[in-house]
Design goal:
- There is one protein chain.
- The protein is 44% helix and 18% strand.
- Helix 7 packs across helix 8.
- The protein has a 7-stranded mixed sheet with strand order 13-23-24-25-21-26-27, sandwiched between helices. Strands 3-4-2-1-5-6 form a 6-stranded mixed sheet, with helices on both faces. Strands 11-10-7-8-9-12 form a 6-stranded mixed sheet.
- The chain is globular.
- It is an alpha/beta fold.
- The model has no long low-confidence stretch (mean pLDDT 88).
Length: 872
C-alpha cells in the first residue's frame, strides 16, 4: 500500500495527497505533518519507512469538504486519490492485492465547485495571464458558473484588472518575473506557474476547438495570439485539475480594454467598493446597496459595481429598466417574489457537468426553470427594452420542465446513493421493486413478533448491519435459553459480544436475500434514471445558461428599484459632457450606518464642478472630523453607482461620463516592500498624475501631509497645478494647507469650498455642510481635545499655536517664533487658583427643584413666568 501511495504522491509533489482508506482520507509523511498543524488534528504514526516512523493523520470522508476549505484558505493544494475498485475485486487478484487508487481531482483555490467551499453571492475566478511577443492578454473563468472571458491586457493594466476581478488563483508562465509574482500576491491570489507549452497559442486554439466541438473559433469572435494563449492555459489547467472531466464552460466572450470605468487597486481599497478596509463585505458599498434576492443576481451586481460601464447606451438601458420597475409597483413586487424562489442554476449545472451533482441539483434546474416560465409571463406586457430582452430566454423549457417534474420527488435527497428521488409512478419496474423492498421490512417486523412469541423473550430484536446482514439479537442473560432445546433447532448462533448474543434462522436468511436484492436493484434503477436526467439537462445547458443570465439581469434591476424606493434615490442623468453636478448628495454607507446607530440624519451636500470645460477642481478646506473625506468619497461613489446602472443617493445628479476613477484617501504603510506611509502616498499620487485623462474623476485628500510642512505644501501645490494644467480633469482636492486657497485666483478651473463648523463657548461644533469659500483655520487643537489628549497638552498646544500665529502676523518665521518667543514646555504646569464658588441664585435654586418630565405644558409656561419675575 505504501508503495502505491509514494507512486501517486510523486506525481503531485506540490499538493497534499488525500489518500482514500475506507471511510477516511489519510495523509502520510510531510503531508501529515503539514495537515495536522493546519487543521489542528491529531498526528499519529503508521509503520516504518527506511527505518523511520511514518507520520500519519486522517479526516473522515463525510466531513472532508470542511477540511478541504481550511487547507485551501491556508494556501494548500489538495490531490484527492479515490479507490477505483471495490475491495472485493482487489481480493480476487490475491489476498495481499492493494485496492487500485488514482487521483480524481486536484483541488486548488480557483477550481472549487462545492457549495460548502464557495460564497454563494461571489464569483470564484481563476485567471491566466499570457504574453506573446508584443501582445498580452488576461483570461478568466468561474468554473462554478461556466463564465469564460478574455481581454487584451498590457502588463501596465494587469494590476487594476486583477483588482477588479479579485481572482483566487492566477496562472502564469513558469519563467515569470518577480514583478508579476508581486502583483498577484498583492491582491491575495495564489500564483500557479505552468509550463510554457500550456501558453502555446497554436496548441491553445486546438484545445479550445476540441472543448467547444467546433472546427474554428471564428463564430466566437476574433482573438489575438495572446488571448488564445491565455484561454488555452485555462483549459489546459482545468484538464489537469479535473482529471479530464472538463467543466461546462460557456463560449468565450471578449471584453474591450476601455469598456469599463478604470479603477485601480488603491482606489478600490480606499472607496471600499466590495470589501471594507477592515476586511470582509460588511461596511462596503456592495453591502450597503445589495438588495438582490438570487445568488446569480448578487454576483452580477458585484461585477457591475466592480466595473461600471462606459457605454452610454448600456447605462441608459439599465436606468430605463430600473425606472420601469420603480413605477410598476405590482410588477416589481411579483417579480421579486418569484425571483426569491429561484435556486442557483449556474452552480447546479456546473456540478452536474463535472459529475459531482446530485438529485437536488436536478431539482434546482427544475425549480429554476419553472419560476423562469412564471417570470416570463409576468414580463409579457413590458415595453421592449432591457427587461424584455432579459426575459426572452426564460421560455422554451417546457419539455425539460415536464420531464423533471414527472421524474423527481418534490424534495429529493442530496446524494444519489441515498435513493428515493425518483417519483412514484414514473417507472413501474422501480415501483414494484420498492414494494418488495418495503414489504420485506414489514415481513421482518412480523417475523420478530413471531420469534418473540416463540421464545418468550420480549427484548428480542431483529437488526441489520453491513457485516452480518439481518440477525436476531438478545441480551446475554437469555443466551442459555436460546441455545437450549427446542429453541436451538430454530435459532442458529452467529456471534457473541460483551452484552448481546446474535442468532439467525433459515427463513430470516431467505428474506434477507430477497430484501437486499430488491433494495440494491431499486437503487441501481434510480442511478440509471439519474444518468438519463443529468444528460437531458446537460443537452440543454446553453438555453439554461441564457435563462440564468436573464434572471440575474432582472434581479439586479429589481434590486436597484427596491433600493431607490426605500432610500429615496433618484435617476442620474449620464451623458457625454464633462459635467459633475450633484444636488443633495449622500454617502450610502455612512448614511446607512448612522441610521442603524440611532437615526442621526446624514447632512446632504451639493457638488457643482463647472461644465463649461475642463479642468474643474474644488479645493476643499476645513477641520478634521468635519466630513471632508466623506464628501470626497460620496461623490466618487455616486459616479460609480450611476455608471453601474443604478439610481443614486441625491436629489439630482448630472454626470458627464467618467472614464477613470482615482482616489488617494487615507494613510497606510507598506512595510513588506519597504515603503513608508509617505512613500505609499507619493506612489499612489504619481499613478494618478501619470494616468488621469480629461474624463477622469480624481479625489485627493491631504496630499503631502507625511513630510515636513514646506515640503508637503510644495508637493500639494504642484500636484494641484498638474491636475489643472496637464491632466485637465475633474477633481476634489482636500487639504489643510490654507495657503493653497490662493490658487483659486490664479487657476481658472479651481474653486474654493469648505466644510463649515461653529464655535460655541470654546467648543467646536461640526455642521458637515459644504459651501463655497475657504476655511481660515483647521481647529486641530479642538479636535485633539475631543480625542481625549491630556488637558496639559491641549493648554500647551494653544500657547504654541497663538505664538506661531502671532509670529506670522508680525512677519517673522514660524521657527523663530517657536524658538525665541516660547518658554520650554513644563510637564507639570503651575496650578491655577480656582475662583471662589459663587452663591447660587434664586433662579438656580428653583430650577434644581424642577423635574421637567413631570411638567404639563401649562405648568412649564407658568414656570417660565415665575423665573422671569425672579430675575426682574
Amino acid at each position: 500500500m505504501m508503495a502505491q501511495y509514494l507512486e501517486i504522491k510523486a506525481q503531485y509533489r506540490d499538493a497534499i495527497l488525500f489518500y482514500r482508506m475506507g471511510d477516511f482520507y489519510e495523509m502520510f509523511f510531510d503531508d501529515a505533518v503539514a495537515a495536522s498543524e493546519a487543521l489542528d488534528i491529531a498526528l499519529t504514526k503508521r509503520g516504518k519507512h527506511l527505518g523511520e516512523d511514518i507520520a500519519m493523520c486522517g479526516v473522515p470522508v463525510h466531513a472532508a469538504e470542511g477540511y478541504l476549505l481550511a487547507l485551501i484558505r491556508k494556501g494548500f493544494r489538495v490531490a484527492i486519490a479515490e479507490q477505483m475498485e471495490d475491495p472485493a475485486e482487489a481480493k480476487k487478484r490475491g489476498s495481499k492485492s492493494v485496492v487500485r487508487r488514482d487521483v480524481v481531482r486536484l483541488v486548488t483555490p480557483g477550481t472549487l465547485t462545492e457549495d460548502s467551499l464557495l460564497e454563494a453571492r461571489r464569483h470564484n475566478y481563476l485567471c491566466a495571464f499570457a504574453e506573446v511577443r508584443d501582445e498580452a492578454a488576461l483570461a478568466w473563468t468561474d468554473i462554478s458558473t461556466g463564465e469564460l472571458r478574455v481581454m487584451p491586457c498590457p502588463p501596465a493594466r494587469l494590476p487594476p484588472e486583477l483588482a477588479r476581478l479579485a481572482p483566487r488563483e492566477v496562472l502564469v508562465a513558469e519563467d515569470h518575473g518577480a514583478d508579476l509574482a508581486l502583483i498577484v500576491t498583492e491582491i491575495g491570489a495564489a500564483i500557479t506557474p505552468m509550463a510554457r507549452a500550456s501558453f502555446d497559442s497554436t496548441g491553445a486554439e486546438k484545445r479550445l476547438c476540441a472543448l467547444f466541438q467546433v472546427t474554428t473559433l471564428d463564430a466566437f469572435g476574433a482573438f489575438d495570439r495572446a488571448e488564445l494563449a491565455a484561454l488555452g492555459a485555462l483549459v489546459d489547467y482545468l484538464d489537469l485539475t479535473q482529471r479530464g472531466k472538463l467543466p461546462l464552460l460557456r463560449a468565450p466572450q471578449r471584453e474591450a480594454l476601455g469598456g469599463a470605468m478604470q479603477i485601480d487597486a488603491a482606489t478600490r481599497r480606499n472607496l471600499e467598493i466590495t470589501a471594507a478596509l477592515s476586511g470582509g463585505r460588511a461596511g462596503s458599498l456592495l453591502d450597503a446597496v445589495d438588495r438582490s434576492v438570487t445568488a446569480g443576481g448578487a454576483r452580477l451586481l458585484e461585477r457591475r459595481l466592480s466595473s461600471p460601464s462606459r457605454d452610454l447606451v448600456q447605462i441608459t438601458a439599465r436606468h430605463d429598466a430600473v425606472a420601469h420597475l420603480l413605477d410598476a409597483t405590482r410588477l416589481r413586487d411579483d417579480l421579486r417574489a418569484a425571483l426569491r424562489r429561484v435556486p442557483d442554476m449556474d452552480r447546479a449545472l456546473s456540478r452536474l457537468a463535472l459529475d459531482r451533482g446530485g438529485p437536488r441539483d436536478l431539482a434546482a434546474i427544475r425549480n429554476g426553470l419553472e419560476n423562469a416560465a412564471l417570470i416570463a409571463t409576468l414580463m409579457s406586457g413590458v415595453e421592449p427594452g432591457l427587461l424584455t430582452t432579459a426575459a426572452t430566454g426564460l421560455r422554451g423549457h417546457d419539455e425539460l420542465i415536464s420531464l423533471l417534474d414527472q421524474s423527481l420527488v418534490a424534495e429529493p435527497p442530496l446524494l444519489v446513493r441515498d435513493g428515493g428521488f425518483i417519483a412514484p409512478g414514473y417507472d413501474g419496474d422501480l415501483d414494484e421493486t420498492r414494494r418488495l423492498r418495503d414489504e420485506g421490512r414489514g415481513v421482518v417486523a412480523a417475523m420478530q413478533a413471531d420469534y418473540i412469541a416463540q421464545s418468550g423473550i420480549q427484548s428480542l430484536k431483529i437488526k441489520h448491519n453491513n457485516v452480518l446482514g439481518y440477525f436476531i439479537e438478545t441480551t446475554s442473560t437469555h443466551a442459555e435459553k436460546m441455545q437450549a432445546s427446542p429453541l436451538n433447532e430454530t435459532f442458529i448462533h452467529r456471534q457473541t459480544t460483551a452484552n448481546q448474543v446474535r442468532f439467525t434462522t433459515l427463513p430470516l436468511s431467505e428474506i434477507e436475500t430477497r430484501i437486499l436484492n430488491a433494495g440494491n436493484h431499486a437503487l441501481e434503477l434510480e442511478k440509471r434514471h439519474f444518468a438519463v436526467l443529468r444528460q437531458a439537462v446537460l443537452d440543454q445547458a446553453g438555453p439554461i445558461g441564457v435563462a440564468s443570465q436573464g434572471l440575474a439581469e432582472l434581479d439586479v434591476a429589481g434590486s436597484f428599484a427596491d433600493l431607490a424606493l426605500a432610500e429615496d434615490w433618484i435617476r442620474p442623468r449620464v451623458d457625454d459632457s464633462h459635467a459633475f453636478h450633484i444636488e443633495g448628495g449622500r454617502h450610502p454607507v455612512v448614511e446607512r450606518a448612522l441610521r442603524r446607530q440611532g437615526g442621526t440624519p446624514f447632512v446632504a451636500n451639493d457638488c457643482a464642478l463647472t461644465e463649461t470645460g475642463t479642468p474643474a477642481i474644488w479645493l476643499l478646506t476645513g477641520p478634521n472630523m468635519a466630513g471632508k473625506s466623506t464628501f470626497l468619497r460620496q461623490n466618487a461613489l455616486i459616479a460609480l453607482i450611476a455608471q453601474a446602472g443604478g439610481y443614486v443617493p441625491a436629489r439630482a445628479a448630472h454626470i458627464g461620463l467618467v472614464s477613470q476613477l482615482f482616489s488617494r484617501v487615507g494613510a497606510s504603510d507598506d512595510l513588506a516592500r519597504g515603503r513608508s506611509t509617505f512613500m505609499v502616498e507619493m506612489v499612489e499620487t504619481a499613478a494618478i498624475l501619470n494616468q488621469a485623462d480629461a474624463r477622469a474623476l480624481v479625489i485627493l485628500d491631504e496630499i503631502g501631509r507625511g513630510t515636513a510642512t514646506y515640503d508637503g505644501l510644495s508637493i500639494a501645490w504642484a500636484t494641484l497645478e498638474h491636475l489643472h494644467d496637464v491632466n485637465r480633469c475633474r477633481a476634489l482636492f482636500a487639504t489643510h494647507y490654507h495657503e493653497m486657497t490662493a490658487l483659486s485666483a490664479k487657476l481658472s478651473g479651481v474653486e474654493n469650498a469648505t466644510v463649515t463648523v461653529k464655535e460655541w463657548d470654546g467648543e467646536v461644533i461640526f455642521l458637515h455642510e459644504v459651501k463655497k469659500g475657504a476655511a481660515d483655520r483647521s481647529y486641530g487643537v479642538q479636535v485633539a481635545r475631543l480625542a481625549g489628549l491630556p488637558s496639559s497638552v491641549i493648554d500647551r498646544a494653544k500657547v504654541v499655536l497663538e505664538a506661531l500665529e502671532a509670529g506670522e502676523r508680525s512677519g517673522g518665521s514660524k521657527a523663530k517664533a517657536l524658538i525665541d518667543d516660547l518658554p520650554l514646555f513644563r510637564a507639570a504646569p503651575a496650578p491655577v487658583a480656582k475662583p471662589a464658588a459663587s452663591k447660587a441664585s434664586a433662579v438656580e435654586l428653583r430650577l434644581r427643584e424642577v423635574h421637567p418630565d413631570a411638567l404639563s405644558p401649562i405648568e412649564a409656561l407658568n414656570l417660565i413666568y415665575e423665573l422671569k419675575q425672579a430675575l426682574d
